[in-house]
Design brief:
- This protein has three domains: about 1-95; about 115-180, no CATH class; about 185-259, no CATH class.
- Helix content is about 55%, strand content about 20%.
- The protein is built from four helices and eleven strands.
- The strands form four sheets. A five-stranded mixed beta sheet has the order 9-8-5-10-11.
- Strand 10 and strand 11 (about 255-259) form a beta hairpin.
- It starts with a helix and ends with a strand.
- Mean pLDDT is about 80; it is low at about 240-259.
Length: about 260
């Protein structure tokens, strides 16, 4: 009986020991759970705080991105303005260069005009051609221009024109004087050549030299003028009105003229 009680007592003691161990284990697990719960709560608080910080950072980044975009837009606008300003400066430089060239041309034209000549810088050939076409329509029937009004003949008018210039506050005016072609104002130039003739009294051929070697005959064939070499030289130098020189040669003899 006592042995059974002792065994029962041992079993109860073992149960108490197991119960104490289980209680201790439960207390340990409870403590661990509390610590784990506290850690989870702390982590939750930390994560929440981090989320707030990240949200603030994202907000700041978004604002910074908006600021960067605004700066980029302003920078692009500034670059466009600089490009436009640079283009405008180049256009102004080109305009100033053209203006300088035009001013130089005008000065050169005025220098030529000061000598009494017509300058192509002040009056280009195509403009002169148009003006002469209008002038030709208003001339009397008995006179005409020296040559055609085509571009190929403009050099003639630049050669013979006499020019005077005067300026106003806004314009440069040219007074152009041109000789006109008339029936008795145009002459053909001939060079005379004496022929030898047989002289019966002398029984030989003789050649009589004329006083002048050149003759100017009007286009109507009604007038003529004998020209010396000096007269011809003056005509070629422009002291006389221009004459149309021909290659015809007039042969002279004491009794008749022969062409």
């Amino acid at each position: 009986m006592s042995a059974k009680l002792q065994t029962l007592h041992q079993v109860v003691e073992g149960i108490k020991i197991q119960q104490s161990a289980i209680t201790h284990s439960l207390e340990h697990q409870l403590t661990y759970m509390k610590e784990l719960d506290e850690n989870v709560r702390q982590n939750t608080r930390d994560v929440t705080l981090l989320a707030r910080i990240l949200k603030l950072q994202v907000t700041d980044i978004i604002k910074l991105n908006g600021t960067v975009k605004e700066l980029e837009t302003k920078l692009i606008s500034c670059l466009e303005l600089m490009a436009n300003a640079s283009q405008t400066v180049r256009e102004l430089e080109f305009f100033c260069l053209q203006l300088e060239q035009e001013f130089i041309k005008i000065l050169q034209g005025l220098d030529v005009t000061s000598t009494g000549k017509l300058s192509a810088e002040l009056l280009p050939p195509h403009n002169l051609s148009q003006i002469l076409q209008q002038v030709a329509l208003r001339l009397p029937t008995d006179v005409s221009l020296l040559a055609r009004t085509s571009m190929e003949d403009m050099f003639i008018y630049f050669e013979v024109a006499k020019v005077q210039t005067y300026t106003t506050s806004s314009k440069i005016r040219l007074v152009i004087r041109l000789p006109l072609r008339g029936t008795n104002r145009v002459v053909n130039l001939y060079r005379t050549k004496p022929l030898t003739i047989y002289e019966p009294l002398l029984k030989r051929h003789v050649q009589i030299l004329p006083e002048t070697l050149y003759m100017a005959v009007s286009e109507s064939r009604q007038y003529y003028s004998l020209l010396t070499r000096e007269d011809l030289h003056n005509c070629q130098q422009g002291l006389f009105s221009p004459v149309s020189q021909k290659d015809s040669v007039m042969f002279w003899s004491p009794t008749f003229w022969k062409t």
